[in-house]
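Hi there, hope your week has been kind to you so far. For a while now I've been wondering how a particular protein folds. I'm sending you its amino acid sequence along with the C-alpha cells. Could you read through the record and tell me how the C-alpha cells relate to the sequence? Take your time with it, there's no hurry, and the full record follows here.
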Amino acid sequence: MNNPTNSEVPLEYSIVIPVYNSGRWMDELVGRIGAVMEHEAAGNYELILVNDCSPDPQTWPTIQRNATANPWVRGFNLLYNVGQFKATLCGIQQAAGRYILTMDDDLQHLPEELPKLIDAMRTRNDILCIMGIYDTKRHNAFRNAGTRFYQRIMDQFYGKPANIQTSSFRIMRRELAEAVLSYRTAKPQMGPLIVSLTQKIENIQVQHAPRKEGVSGYSTWTLISTTFDSIIHASTAPLRCFSALGFLCAGGSLLLGLFFLARWLAGGIRVVGFTTQTLLITFFGGMTLAGIGILGEYIARIITEITGPERYSIKERTDQGQD
C-alpha cells in the first residue's frame, strides 16, 4: 500500500470505490461523500475512484474533472476490465488511510451511512472489519435468495460465523487490508479473503437504496460463476465429493455384480440386459466426464495462477507525478 504523501499528518480514511459506467451520477456521488466526510473527518480523508475500463465515455472524464476540482479525490483508469474485486484491490493498494472503506458506485450504498461504519470502528479496538448489512435489500427475490445461498457457502467453506453477513459496504483497519493484498490469487474475492483471515468482524445495520439508474452489471451467470469461484477457491470439496461418489459407485457395482453372478449360477438369467447396460454406461460415462471437468477446472486455476497476467494494470491516474 502507498504511504501518505504527508508523513507528518497521515490520512485517517481512504474510501475506495470501483467504478463502471457510472459517469451520469458520479458528480452526485462525489458531492455527497464530500459533504459527509468533511463533517466527519475535516479534510483528513481521500476518495479513490477506480475506473474499471468503462465503455461509457463519460465515466473517466467525470472522474478527472472531480479530481481536478477536489484535491481529496484520486482517480485511476485501468487498462482493461478486471471486475469489481480486482478493481477494489487496486484502490486498496493505492490507499493511504489508517482505515479503508469500500462501497459500490451505484448509490445503493448511501454515503450518508458512512458515519455509522466509522463510529462503530472507533468504539471497537478489537475489531478489524465492520460490514454494513441491510434491513431490506432493494434487489429482486432471485438475487436475494442467491445472496442467502452465498452466505451459507461462506459459513461452510470459510468458517464464517453464522451470525455475520458479508457485504461490500465495509470499513477495515489498514493491517487487515495489507493482509488481504498479500494474497496473490488470480481470482480474488474480498468477502472470502476477509473471513478467511479473521473472525474479528462485526455487522452494523445500514440503509440500502434503490439503484440510481440502469441495471446491475452482475448477470445471473456472473453471480453463479462468482459463487462457483468461491467454492473452488476455498476448498477441494467438489473433488472429494466425486471421489466419494466414485467409491460408492464402485462398491455398488461390485455388489450388483455379485448379485447377478449368483443369479446366473442359479440359472435365473437367460436374456442379456441391454437396457441395464445402456443406463449404466450412460450414467458412469456422464459421472466420469463431470469428474474430469471438475479436475480440469482446478488444473486451469493452477495454470492461471502461475502464468496469468497481473491482476490489473493502471493506464492513467489523476495524481500522476505526485508520488
